Amino acid sequence: MKIAIKREQSQTCLGFAEHEQFAGFSWKNTIWVVAVFLLASCSDYLDVVPDNTLKLENIYATKDDAYNALAKIYSYLPNDEATHETIWEMGDEFIGRIDPPVQDNTGQLRAERIMRGLQTTGDPLLGNWSGTGGGRPYYEAIRSTNVFLQYIVGTRNLDDNERADWIAQATFLKAYYHFLLLQKYGPIIISDKVIQPDASADELFPSRSKVEDCFDYIIRLMDEAIPKLTERAEENNLGQIDQIAATAIKARVLYFRASPFYSGNKEFFGDFYDPTDGGPFFPVDDSAERTKEKWQEALTAINTAIEVAERNGKGLYRFEKEVYVKDRNFYALNPDRMKTYYDLRMLIVDPWNEELLWANSNVDIYNQGELAHATNIRLPAGFEGDVNASGFSWQWLGATYQMAERYYTENGLPIEEDLTFNYNTRLDAYLTPGAEDPDYPAIAGLMQPNQPTINMYMNREMRFYANLGITGGYFRSHFEIIPVYMMQGTNGGYNPSVNATDFFCTGIGIQKLVHPESRSSNWQRQVKFPYPIIRMADLHLMKAEVLNEIKDQPDQEVWDAINLVRERAGVPNVEEVWSNAALTRTVNKHRSKTGMRDIILEERSIELAFEGIHFWDMLRHKRAHAEFSAPIQGWNYKGTAPSTFFVLGVTQARRFTIRDYLWPIDLNEMNTNGKLTQNPGW
Amino acid sequence: MKKINVWKDYPWGKPYTFLLIMKLTFILTLLFVLNTSANTYSQGAKLNISVQQATLRELFDQIKSQSDYKFLYNNDLVNDDLKINVNIKTSSVEDVLTEALRQSNLSFRVVGKQILIYPVAETEKPDVQAQKNLVRGVITDPSGAPLPGATVTIAGSTRGVITDADGNYSIEANRGEKLVFSFIGMESETVEVVAQKVINMQMREKSQELEDVTVVAFGRQKKESVVASISTVDVGELRVPASNLTSALAGKIAGIISYQTSGEPGADNAQFFIRGVTTFGYKTSPLILIDGFESTTDDLARLQPDDIESFSVMKDASATVMYGARSANGIISVVTKAGREGDVKISFRGDVNIAMPTRKIEFLDGVSYMRLYNEAQITRNPTLGAYYDEQKIQSTMRGEYPMIYPNVYWYDALFNKSTINEKANINISGGGKVATYYVSGTMEHETGLLKVDRRNNFNNNIDITRTNVRSNVIFKLSPTTTLDTRITGRFERYTGPYETASEIYRQIMWSNPVDFPFTYEPDEANQFAEHILFGSTLISGGFKVNPYASMVRGYEDRNETSITAQATLSQDLKFITEGLKVSLKISANSWGKYTSRRTYSPYYYALENYNQITGQYTLFALNPTTGQAYLGDVQPGRDASGQYYYEGILNWNREFGKHKVGFTSVAIAQENLVTGGNSSSIYYTLPEKNLGISGRMTYDYDTRYFLDFSYGYNGSEKFSGSKQFGFFPALAAGWLVSNESFFEPYKNLISSLKLKFSWGQGGNDAISGREGRFFFLSDVSIPQPNTASSYRWGNTFQNAYNGYVVSRYANPNITWEVSTKYNAGIELNLLKNESIRIQADFFKDKRDKIYMVRENFPASAGLEASISGNVGQVDSHGIDASLDIEHQFNSDFWMTGRANFTYATNKYVELDEKNYPDEYLKRKGHNIDQWWGLVAERLFVDQAEIDNSPHQDFGEYMAGDIKYKDVNGDGVVNNNDRVPMGYPTKPEIQVGAGLSVGYKKFDFSFFFQGNARVSMFINPGVGGGDDGAEGIAPLVGNRNAMPFIADDYWSETNPNPYAFWPRLSTSTVNNNLQQSSWWLRDVSFIRLKSAEMGYNFPVKKLKLENCRLYVSGENLFVLSKFKYWDPEMGRKGIGYPPNRRFNIGFKLDF
Fold this sequence. Notes:
The complex is a heterodimer. Chain A is mainly alpha-helical. Chain A has helices at residues 2-23, 28-42, 56-59, 63-74, 100-103, 110-115, 138-151, 160-185, 201-204, 211-225, 243-258, 266-269, 288-311, 328-333, 335-345, 371-375, 401-406, 440-443, 462-467, 536-550, 556-569, 574-578, 593-607, 614-620, 624-628, 642-645, 667-672; strands at 94-95, 356-360, 398-399, 429-431, 452-454, 468-469, 474-477, 480-483, 509-510, 531-535, 632-634, 649-652. Chain A contains 27 helices and 12 strands. In chain A, strands 1-3 form a two-stranded antiparallel ribbon. Chain A is globular. Chain A starts with a helix and ends in a 10-residue tail after the last helix. Chain B is mainly β. Chain B is built from 15 helices and 60 strands. In chain B, helix 7 runs antiparallel to helix 8 (390-398). The chains are: A mainly alpha, B mainly beta. At the A-B interface, helix 1, helix 2, helix 3, helix 4 and helix 5 of A face helix 1, strand 31, strand 34, strand 35 and strand 36 of B.
């Protein structure tokens, strides 16, 4: 190619030269000057691009350079922390701003829009097939891993172990991106090789693979990667995939594969057929045996994951540090509960604690917009700091009323099951004991003394108080223990004169994702933490669920798995409370397979609340359309007194139908690739 | 011999002057000073002669004043007692003299620039005496110096003599025989021997064509021999009151489609395309050449019509191919005037115009606004209730306490009704034997409509002062050598608002009349505030925009300079072989633009408390800490470019009997450098370069048959390998039918008829912007931290890497976009003195290898950047035609008319588009400016209808929202239900027609211009779309509303399913924003583009030769079906409208 250029150019130069000779007779000197000038610049005249511009090979030249390539393949991981892009807001846990500029903005609170029934095929929200509506383009991600695998073999100063580790990380990520697609789209296109721009139509326009083939492909890649991965990533590499993360994720993949939505789901996918061979895309005809096999494989993977994690010092988190100075009084008054409270309050926000198996470490330490900002409350007047700085705390992503109901009573039972908890009067006013009252120590640090609140906010388990910000309780943030009332003009409430659109529209806040030490006035003083992708409690509860599915009847092994988590939460063991006729309405629910399944899913919805798990649980068990079509309820945020505030109303209508279980493939892609079959209902 | 009046200049000055010029040549050459390739002047100039009872001398003086002709005559012959009357408009000198001398006993002959006056008697008296004469005389060169060695021969014989050292000759010649005078490099002259004893001959240089010449690529050709399709326009027609030449193009030239969407001073360039848009690629605009040098639209816009000698539009391949790399979109070629030998001539013109918008956009008054807003809020969500309470509405209606109950007419608060602009230019020309010069200067002062707040001491209105200077000097270094130097400078000082004026127009749309006054009168607490108390209110966490604050909060200063210098050295090489010439040209341009924006941060206030009885109020500051009363640091901007161009031309033209051949060979090199103020890509600032050789061979047999072959062979920095150079040939043929002998009988009716045909190809390398042009390279970059490709690990999240981004995949196969053009034309002149001239061209353009982003590329391939290829093809065709009429009713009353018609349409023939399931979705076969939209049936009547209609996949909707047709019947209305609708968004037809009439010293002219077959989709949303057109959605986010919506919308009380506006809403309703037939409008129009009335004073005082006073108007009215705003603005109706101007001006000639 280079030679050709030279030849062409020299021809042109010749053209000039001939010309100049003609001209040279009478104006020899002038022409000579011009001719020399032209000839000198002629040979490379058109070659204007300097040699040392960046090329793809340069990125992979040395290990230091190749870190950029490694960053690249990680960079497509979902932004779970980004308020408008996170998939964690799917389901019925979060509720954001309800004023029209946000509600009408297709670029904001996208997951919530899907729950409102506003998903479209034109520009699917959180669409990962083509990267639409705030979704990362996972096929681009997969291509980047394929490119990485192709080039990393040539990187000069990687030693064999490092190279093997990086290759394994890339391979695992490739599998994981396929899994993330599979979760949302069901049958997907498997993209195993780099597709060249000039590829043939057959390579460019493949059809979708069967769900089971996709799972097999993903698991095969993961199995290939796991042995070569570093066992435990440390220090600067925290957040990279190690064996702890990989075995846990593999367990999750198998757990999803066995779940009713993805396996044997004739109800939904009985007529969703692959036109190329007429076979069903989903394994709708799987026998009970086959399903059990899948659960069994999931169990093996979970056990391996737990084993690898525990071998490497992972376990359920406990807060072992000194309690904060301002909490010492409460701690002295109410030591047991405060200890549990701290275990739960710090669980997510204490960075890199032992419970984390894999987390999104791509925390933008220079920017805002993460859930921690959106859920934090504004520092009320009367405290030190820039009280109205909305940049630090948006105070506009709250919890739904459904969440306030979902947490257990202090007995570890759902509020409608607990005989000691009067469900019917739950919304009635209640005045908390005064500071001198003998009942006060039991609520010290959880509820303020002598404050009006409602029955439902009393006698709840610790996760309720640690995760939510409620009227009469405390919101630990800004290095303060902020007493919150959530009514108009009060701490945590709507304030028409200050950032009038920033308020919790249900009157219920979330403090689970806010580090208590985050300071006011500047987002850079927010204490950052990695958002969990998978953590230990999830594994234990997965194990409980899988065991329950495998066994004909739940037994102690199942209960033990769930009890690990309950113990940390400070609630009694499952078999203890559910067999107690004095406590529970449905006695021995834990002894039936279906009853235990409900108990496990409830436990998961509480333990893993606001972590993007509940939506998938409901989806896996085909309960999402029933669960999520109920409207979001909330208090009247404009109420200025308990009488006007505690009026339950509809905050947002929801419509989640069966077609919403699977994301639509965007219209553009459907128009491009004629071999694609659209998901049912779209 | 009687005394002969001849000019007595020295041949080329004294010897030392010559040497000085030689040195100067070198210096200028080395300084890259530039020139144009030819140095002739068009003698096609038309004369307007009006003398009553004048002597012949007076007549001659008048002719001289209007042209470069010199008269040669024997003083005794011209009898001052003879009084003649002549009144002729726009006629050639021959016509004038024929008319004038008919009244005398004299005759004349035009020789070069000389006009010889001789007695009729001598020539026409039959002489029965000696048959043989000894004829003698002196042959002189064009400067009057004797010409030794010239030959005089008797036509048709072998007899001949050569002049002696003093240029004398004598030869025996029979009466009736013809003497042929010839000399190398000079035009041969033939004189019939009648009775003269002395025939003196002043030769003229060959290059100084006197016939109508047309500017062609790298040269000029006689008009009759041009077979390419080239339109020229009478430069006078381009003179309009506006200070922007591009705004005058629409309808004036057959083959150009042009429209102007904004009248904002300094940002009012019109769009223009030659033969419509013929590609969907990156560059659609024509190449602009000013004196042969590629120039920008701004350079063209600022040209003064008085400085222009010729303005031509090269349309077909034969005309453009020699510019290979840049020729595909046609060429606009402008040649500026050069000086002519003779006395100093000074011309001065002054104009003053008053400019006002063609249409003013109306907005609702406060009371109607509040009522409409309340309705909008309640109709979508009854639980929300009214937004504005009745007390506020009532108080506003009573007009009390405007600080508390504002009712702001933002438009009137921000803009003046009209503004005044001034313009003056002067040019001085003349020259001697050594050099000729044309020097001109122009000053323009243009202002905008924005109001200025007296509390600021700076001017936030648009205020532009432009100065243009031009110096075209041609040095005659030797009889065969010229050095043409042209230096032009364009200097612009601009001050204007901090936001652009168009932006402020848009901000009116974002405001509303009732939320706050534009400034508050200070309350007690603020009475000593040293800043303006702007009104605003908190909304959605920010301040609501106050357009007044945006307008007066600061200003922008710009200083723009463009300097072009050209030098062309031309050498006649007749001593090698006759007709051979060479020229070398160097051109350079330096352009720079510096902007500085200065602003303060306005203090916004809102009402804290007020007493509705007393009108007392207190204010609170919305931004007491972030406001800033003084101007902050400058926000500078800086852009510069340098452009260098080198050209060598070798030219050979020769006549062999009836055969005329011409050969032109050109080599060019060009380089464009740009320094962008905020460029981030290394590729942006790399130079753009072209290299090329091109040539033309012409053959003309007997001025009847013409054949042209031309080619361009060009290289571009944008391609590599074998794709780097492109070869583009063109072939053209013409037949001048009227020169055939069989045509003689029809000559009375058809004075001239030419048929022509051409085929050829042109290239286009501008297939992408500067940044993305190195298609053969991949573009991989490591971006800034914390972007989408970065990731961080580690316990402190500090192990961060930026990843990389692929912006382009290498494709070494990307190459030239190629246009294949076919042209068939006819030139027809009817009636004897060509008083009706018709030119029509039928063209076809096949644009191939159009570079485009491949659309049918699946996301599942995972590419980060789009893939492109030379895969598109567009076929265009059309007609452009012009008609000129001239008629002289009598000696006092004349009329000329001109009409132009351009029709150009196109269609996609090949493109990489999606594999759409339905044919109607495919763009193939449709116009490239065809838009697709949903078929809107009507507005939904009720919820039941919604429930029983196909689901519309564009968000929530209710009764009163637009109902669309499910075209493909799949049960859902989505983007796959869009069908092509309306006409293209660029006009397919453009017409212009004008008439000028003169009566005695008065003249009057007007010009209509129209666009047809053009459609537009109203932007029904908020904010600008891709094209920056502000949407008209009312009320959303408390924005303004326009009466034409308030007058016709769906409401629950009046549920008209065909109302203009769907159910009101205070937020955008995505369902209604879809591009659909609901918003489709025909924006064809016809407008009175200009009218002018003038009066010529025949003054003869103070050396003043002529004085003309005129009044003119521009954009006087428009007729269109579309009523909401000026239809020419298209979608950008909420913006600075085109101006209507009334102008008064005068021109003085000395």
